[in-house]
Design a protein that fits this description.
two-stranded antiparallel sheet; about 120 residues
């Protein structure tokens, strides 16, 4: 649970959950399937992807825990899973901040290496 006086903890835990969820290729395939075709049940996804329905359901649970999908009750009380973009945006912000840090460091290194005074001439 995030500490109230440290909002970055929530961002970090969200990013960690997203990266952990995305580390698995089956979960990435599930997310790609939901992105391409919209909400689906575990059975729908199992019909379109290699893992069993039970394995898909387990992966959907982990994706739900990471906030990447949301379970919705559909017709005849079937649970459909819908893609959620908020946690992905948090992870993207995390990566963008890291890229800015690296860009600055790499630019400073390039400037240092390109400095004509460094040649001793």
């Amino acid at each position: 649970m995030p500490l109230p006086d440290r909002p970055e903890t929530d961002t970090e835990s969200t990013a960690q959950a997203v990266f952990t969820a995305l580390a698995d290729p089956t979960r990435r395939r599930i997310l790609a399937e939901l992105a391409a075709h919209g909400p689906a049940t575990a059975t729908d996804l199992a019909d379109r992807l290699p893992p069993s329905r039970q394995a898909i359901a387990k992966h959907l649970g982990l994706l739900s825990d990471a906030g990447l999908v949301r379970a919705e009750t559909g017709e005849r009380r079937r649970i459909r899973f819908r893609l959620q973009t908020g946690p992905v945006a948090v992870a993207q912000s995390f990566l963008a901040a890291m890229a800015r840090d690296w860009d600055g460091r790499l630019s400073a290194l390039r400037d240092h290496l390109d400095d004509p005074r460094r040649d001793g001439t």
